[in-house]
């Protein structure tokens, strides 16, 4: 099998060397070139024709976001954004994912802290099937999500739980564009590096009719609110009976992630509520077992179909084990989930 040809774009010689080291730990990945800035990168892309690009966000001459937008317009290819753990870096990364970047990777703070994560992301990017013009999913303005019903009213004691990973930024923007301002309480686990969920919640809040916030320990679930589980050293659960609320708690990674979709879904399965579980695009199988628990407990469950996924990993794992009641294209999921919670 031919190796995956990766190219690195980063203005720091130290970071170029570190990224190259992390990638070549995987014998199936070959680093074919490294560029210090976009002008050099353009020439090298034409010459080397890499399978995947890793791209820094802050560089001289042209920042990574502007360069990514040109790539996606002129020569679409899988791009993994490599960014620093800063508020500015997080906001830029969210924008990059909206533009069609495959995934984001937080620059490691020390050598040996990666655990093969970057190589895994690059491998999935190269084999995801996102080629040519198909690299870019519909933008928020183009997505064919259902228009929220003006007379929608959710039943009492209902909620929606959503899990997503790679490709989830665009998928969640599309999904929640179809939600009315008075949607059922909705809790989301989207896999992000620590520090990114605050910016993402703010971005969603500006784009959608419901109120979108980063989940905090003790928050009561309220109609018209979407809660984004915070990334970092904790999981997010739903607890309580008379007054369902959120609980964030420290813990080891579950299904390889923290926060974990499985942890959220399993907590919802124990709730005496009419609930809907939704599993969207993403690598791996986090959420599959938890969604099965939900279905066995009487919840309705929906999986994103393969054709509309960036990576048909999590929905595929859930479908294979019988956790998904119905598979749907991304643009139809909002309408179905809302209908299942309608008064």
Describe the secondary-structure layout:
Blueprint: E1 4-9, H1 13-24, E2 29-35, H2 38-48, E3 52-56, H3 64-74, E4 79-83, H4 87-99, E5 103-106, H5 117-127, E6 158-164, H6 168-177, E7 186-190, H7 197-207, E8 211-214, E9 225-228, E10 234-239, E11 245-250, H8 261-269, E12 274-279, H9 288-296, E13 300-304, H10 314-320, E14 326-328, H11 330-340
Parallel strand pairs: 1-2, 1-3, 3-4, 4-5, 6-7, 6-12, 7-9, 8-9, 12-13, 13-14
Antiparallel strand pairs: 10-11
Helix pairs in contact: 3-4, 4-7, 6-11, 8-9, 9-10
Keywords: Chemotaxis, Cytoplasm, Hydrolase, Phosphoprotein
Protein name: Protein-glutamate methylesterase/protein-glutamine glutaminase
Pfam families: CheB_methylest, Response_reg
DSSP strand content: 15-25%
Q: Strands across the major sheet, in which order? A: 8-9-7-6-12-13-14
What is the level-2 CATH architecture name of the largest domain?
A: 3-Layer(aba) Sandwich
Which structural class best describes the helix and strand composition?
Answer: alpha/beta
H/E topology pattern:
EHEHEHEHEHEHEHEEEEHEHEHEH
Count helical runs: 11
Overall average pLDDT: 90
Helix content estimate: 25-40%
Number of extended strands: 14
Query: Which CATH class of the largest domain is shown?
Result: Alpha Beta
Please state the overall shape, judged from the principal axes of the Cα atoms. Answer: elongated
Number of domains: 2
Instruction: Tell me about the largest β-sheet.
Output: 7 strands, parallel
CATH topology of the largest domain: Rossmann fold
Assembly type:
single chain
Low-confidence stretches: 130-144
Organism: Sphingomonas quercus
Subcellular location: Cytoplasm
Main location: cytoplasm
Domain Response regulatory: 5-122
